[in-house]
Amino acid sequence: MLAYGVIRLSDPDHGPGLAWTSGHIALIAGVLLFAAIFLGLLRLSKPTTSAARLSIQAATLLGLVGVVAVTAQGVIDLVVGFRADDRAGMDRFFESIQSHPGVMPAVYTVGPNLFFVGLLWLVIQLAVQRRIGVWRPVLVVLGTAAMAASLDLMPLGALLFCAALSPLGRNATAHPTRAELGEADGRWPRQPA
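Request: output the structure for the sequence above.
Response:
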């Protein structure tokens, strides 16, 4: 996402060409990596109730549906960029594609937003479970807000996502929760048996 955002800023015309193509390839690659991130966040979760388990699974599913929607949008953008000679031609192709019933909500409005809803829902649940710090969902909200405000802020949003997500694996395994250390059975800090 960071690469897409930077490449996008370098192309003020946002028309067909090398910047459009390479930017959208970077976007698709970055978004597809989030499929692994969503599954990794699911694995970090330690739900203690069936409702919590269903909630984390629903959040993961929403995020993955969002990945599919954003990927579809990126592929459409690539195809349009290859077929059009200029920005006006791209606009005509986009109008033609988006005129089909269901395409706008599935690929351009509702579907992509599920990516952000799923991601935020997952990190909030992990913070509630004390699997991650509370500051991580805050960074996800700030990153999402930056990207929603303007696609020109996508590099900032991507950096905020990186800050929120990059050390997760190391952090979650290096710092077990109090419950895992024995707080649940009243032995906090854990006493030798």
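DSSP finds ten helices and no strands in the chain.
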